[in-house]
Design goal:
heterodimer; A: alpha+beta; 4-stranded mixed sheet; 3-stranded antiparallel sheet; 16 helices; B: alpha/beta; Rossmann fold; 5-stranded parallel sheet; two-stranded antiparallel ribbon; 6 helices; 7 strands
Chain lengths: 505, 192
C-alpha cells in the first residue's frame, strides 16, 4: 500500500507544478504537484534536494571534534547538534552523570536556543502568513512587511531572539557554532556579571513571550474554522519526557501517544531508540521516512516537535506555561489537537516555558562555580537524544580504542516529520487547490502548511540523488572542474577533475 | 554587547539598494548571523530592499546591486543558482567558510560519492530491508566534490568566518552602501 496522493497512478501526461525553492524555511526543499487537465491534484510531494553526507565523513574523525563539526549541519539549531553529540560522547566517556555545573550550563544554552529558534520561526519566518493572510501580496509576505505594518511585533520578535542568542553567546562563546559543551561536560561556566546582565532582561522577555502566546491564541480564536481544519490529519505523537511525565527538553525517556491520545509506548531508554524506530527510503527524496517498528510504515509514522511535546507530557514544570498548556488541551475538547497550524500555538507555549526555565537556571549557583568535566568507565558507543526546537534529535556513535568514530547515525527532528509534512501538503492540496487555477497565493498555502512544522531541511539531508543527465562543471575559463554522468543502470560515474588547481578569473 | 569598531561612520546610502541572498551547500548559519544584526536590521532595511532570499517569497532573482552567497557548490542546481546570481548582481559576495573554500561539507571530498550513497541508503543503522538509492528526476545531480564558488564565477568580495559575525556583516554592508571599499579590520576577521 502507498499513501494517498504520494504517487500518481499514471504520471504520464500530467502537468507538473513546482514550488522551488520552498521559502521562509531553513534549508533546501521543493514541492512538486502533478495535475490533470481539470486541475485535479494526482500527486503531491515535498522533496529534500540536497546531499551533504555528514554521517559518512564524521567516520574516522576523533570523537572530541564531533560536537563542533556537527553544528555545521544547521545554523538555526546548532546548539541541538552540539549538545546531542556531547551527550552521546558523555556516554562513551562514562561521564554519566555530568557535573551539576555542566548540566546547568548546557541546559541554559539549550533553553536559550529554544527561545531564539522559536522566536525566529514565529516572527521572522511564519508571522507574515498569519498576520497578512496566506494569499496576501508576495512583496509584503516577509519580515520587512511585518516591520512596516506591525513594528511592535517585529521588534519584540527581534529582541526575544536576541536574548536567546545572547544566552548562547555567553554559554557557548559565540552565537552561531560555539564551543561551550565538550564530551564529559563544558568548557566554561557563567560569570556573575554575565548572569546579572541576563537577569535584568528577564521581566521584559517573560512579558513578551506571554504576548506571543496570546497572539497565537487569538489567531485560533478569531478563525477557528481555518485553524482547526487547515492541513489537519491524525497521527501518533513522539517525544522525550522526564521520568515523571513532565516536559523536559534536555533529557528524558521516549514516549509515544497514538492518534486518540493514549500512551502507546512509555519510558523507553534513549540508548534503545533503535528498538522503537526504523527508517525507510523512498526514491524521490533525500530524507528518510521513520516509523515505529511495531506498527510498520503505514500506521507507525508519527509527528514530533511542539505539537507532540505539549500534548505528550503530563504537565509543564513551570507556572505560566502550564496554565497555557491547559488552555491548549481544553481547545481540543478531550481529543488531541491534530491541526497543523496549532504547531504555532504550541511553539509559543514552549517559548514561554523556555523563558521561565531560563529564569530558574539563572538563580542556580552551579552556573557560577563547580566542576567542568567528569569522567568514568569508557564505553564503545553512545546515544544522545535531545528535544531540539523542531523535535526529537538522535545522535548515535561508535568510537574505537584510538578515539576515532567508527559509526555515526543521525535522525534529525525534521526527518521524523517527513511523512507528516507530506501529509500536510496533500491535505492542503486536496482542500484548497484541487480543481482550481493555481495562483501564487494558493501555492503559498502549501508552504504555510510546511512552515508550521518549522522544518530544518539542511539538517535532514543525508544522501545522494541523481538525474538522468550528464553534468559538467566548467570554470569561467572553460576548464572542466567536475563531471558526473548517470549510467543506464542508475549508477553514478565520475571523471577525474582538477578542482585543487587555483583558477584565476 | 556588540560594539562597532572605532571610526565606522553611520549608515549612509544614496538610494535603496537591492539585495539578494541564497544558501547553497551551507547550513544557514551565515543567514542567522545576518539576522544577528538584531535591531540594526530595521535600520538596514531603510536603505536596502530584499529581493530573492530565503527570508522572502521572491523565488526568482531580479536585477540586484548586491548578492550574498552562503555555501559552496555540491550539486548541479547550486551551480545553476550561482550563475543566475552572478548574472543578476552587480556585486557578488562569498559569505562564510563554505562559499570561500567549501567549508566543512568539503570533508566529503575525500570520499567516493557512489560508495557514500550505497553506505547511507543500503547499509546504514536502522534502515528497513530493501534500502534503495533515491534516483528521482526531481533530485539534482550531486557533484563529485564540493567546490568553493570562485572556481565557477567571478567573486567581488569575500566575507570570512564560520559564520562571519553580525558586526562583520554590519561593517561590510555599511561600507558597501556608502560606496567605500569594505575594510573589516582587526577583530572582525576570524574563522571561529
Amino acid at each position: 500500500m502507498s499513501f494517498a496522493l504520494e504517487t500518481a497512478a499514471h504520471p504520464e501526461g500530467l502537468r507538473r507544478v513546482a514550488i522551488d525553492p520552498v521559502s521562509r524555511v531553513e534549508g533546501h526543499g521543493k514541492v512538486t504537484l502533478l495535475l490533470d487537465e481539470h486541475n485535479h491534484v494526482q500527486q503531491a510531494r515535498l522533496h529534500i534536494v540536497e546531499f551533504r553526507g555528514f554521517e559518512k565523513f564524521i567516520e574516522g574523525r576523533p570523537y572530541w571534534e564531533v560536537p563542533v563539526m556537527v553544528q555545521r549541519l544547521c545554523g538555526i539549531c546548532p546548539v541541538s547538534h552540539h549538545l546531542a553529540a556531547s551527550k552521546a560522547f558523555d556516554r562513551v566517556l562514562g561521564a554519566t552523570p555530568i557535573s551539576a555545573s555542566a548540566e546547568a550550563v548546557r541546559r541554559l544554552m539549550h533553553y536559550g536556543q529554544m527561545l531564539q529558534s522559536h522566536a525566529l520561526h514565529f516572527f521572522h519566518l511564519s508571522s507574515p502568513d498569519l498576520l497578512f493572510g496566506f494569499d496576501s501580496p508576495v512583496a509584503q509576505r516577509n519580515i520587512v512587511g511585518v516591520a512596516q505594518a506591525h513594528p511592535e511585533i517585529a521588534k519584540k520578535g527581534i529582541l526575544l531572539r536576541k536574548f536567546g542568542q545572547e544566552i548562547i553567546r555567553i554559554t557557548a562563546g559565540k552565537r552561531v557554532h560555539g564551543t561551550g559543551a565538550v564530551p564529559g561536560g563544558v568548557n566554561k561556566l557563567v560569570s556573575a556579571e554575565e548572569r546579572d546582565s541576563l537577569k535584568r532582561e528577564l521581566p521584559q522577555m517573560l512579558a513578551w513571550a506571554q504576548d506571543a502566546v496570546d497572539i497565537a491564541k487569538q489567531l485560533h480564536a478569531q478563525n477557528p474554522a481555518l485553524y482547526n481544519r487547515f492541513g489537519s490529519f491524525r497521527s501518533n505523537l513522539l517525544s522525550i519526557v522526564r521520568a515523571d511525565g513532565a516536559m523536559d527538553l534536555y533529557n528524558g525517556v521516549l514516549r509515544v501517544r497514538d492518534e486518540a491520545g493514549h500512551i502507546l509506548v512509555d519510558g523507553v531508554d534513549d540508548q534503545k531508540y533503535l528498538d522503537l524506530i526504523e527508517e525507510e527510503v523512498r526514491p524521490w527524496s533525500y530524507m528518510k521516512f521513520p516509523h515505529l517498528r511495531s506498527l510498520g510504515r503505514e500506521l507507525g509514522w508519527y509527528r514530533v516537535g511542539p505539537l507532540a511535546r505539549v500534548q505528550n507530557c503530563d504537565f509543564i514544570p513551570s507556572e505560566r506555561a502550564e496554565i497555557e498548556r491547559q488552555a491548549f488541551v481544553d481547545w481540543g475538547k478531550g481529543e488531541p489537537v491534530h491541526a497543523t497550524l496549532a504547531y504555532h500555538w504550541a511553539r509559543m507555549i514552549e517559548m514561554l516555558h523556555a523563558v521561565e526555565v531560563i529564569a530558574e537556571l539563572l538563580d542556580d549557583p552551579a552556573l557560577l562555580s563547580g566542576d567542568l568535566l567528569t569522567s568514568g568507565q569508557r564505553q564503545r558507543s553512545g546515544v544522545g537524544i535531545i528535544e531540539a526546537p523542531r523535535g526529537t534529535l538522535i545522535h548515535d556513535y561508535d568510537v574505537g580504542d584510538n578515539d576515532l568514530v567508527t559509526r555515526c547515525n543521525l535522525i534529525v527532528s525534521t526527518t521524523h516529520n517527513n511523512q507528516a509534512m507530506n501529509e500536510a501538503v496533500r491535505s492542503v492540496a486536496r482542500d484548497y487547490l484541487d480543481g482550481h487555477e493555481l495562483t501564487e497565493g494558493l501555492l503559498n498555502h502549501i508552504e504555510v502548511a510546511i512552515r508550521a512544522y518549522d522544518p530544518c531541511l539542511s539538517c535532514a539531508t543525508h544522501a545522494l540523488g541523481q538525474m538522468p543527465l550528464d553534468v559538467t562543471l566548467l570554470a569561467a575559463d572553460g576548464t572542466v572542474l567536475d563531471r558526473v554522468q548517470k549510467s543506464a543502470l542508475g549508477g553514478v560515474s565520475r571523471s577525474i577533475n582538477h578542482s585543487s588547481d587555483e583558477i584565476s578569473l | 554587547m556588540n560594539i562597532l569598531p572605532n571610526g565606522v561612520p553611520p549608515l549612509h546610502a544614496p538610494r535603496k539598494l537591492k539585495l539578494a541572498t541564497v544558501s547553497l551547500a551551507g547550513c544557514f548559519g551565515c543567514h542567522m548571523s545576518f539576522l544577528d544584526m538584531d535591531e540594526r536590521l530595521l535600520q538596514l532595511l531603510e536603505y536596502v530592499e530584499i529581493d530573492r532570499s530565503p527570508l522572502t517569497d521572491i523565488k526568482t532573482i531580479g536585477r540586484c546591486d548586491i548578492g550574498l552567497i552562503e555555501g559552496g557548490l555540491c550539486n548541479a542546481e547550486n551551480v545553476h543558482v550561482l550563475r543566475e546570481f552572478r548574472s543578476h548582481c552587480k556585486t557578488l559576495v562569498a559569505v562564510g567558510a563554505c562559499a570561500i573554500n567549501g567549508g566543512l561539507p568539503a570533508q566529503r571530498n575525500q570520499r567516493d560519492v557512489g560508495q557514500m550513497l550505497r553506505d547511507v541508503y543500503c547499509g546504514q543503522t536502522g534502515i528497513d530491508a530493501g534500502g534503495q538509492i533515491p534516483n528521482d528526476p526531481e533530485l539534482p545531480l550531486p557533484l563529485n566534490h564540493v567546490h568553493p564558488i570562485h572556481e565557477v564565477v567571478h567573486v567581488d568580495y569575500y566575507l570570512p568566518g564560520c559564520p562571519p559575525s553580525a558586526d562583520a556583516f554590519w561593517t561590510f554592508l555599511n561600507d558597501l552602501l556608502a560606496g567605500r571599499t569594505p575594510q573589516l579590520g582587526h577583530g572582525l576577521i576570524h574563522y571561529d
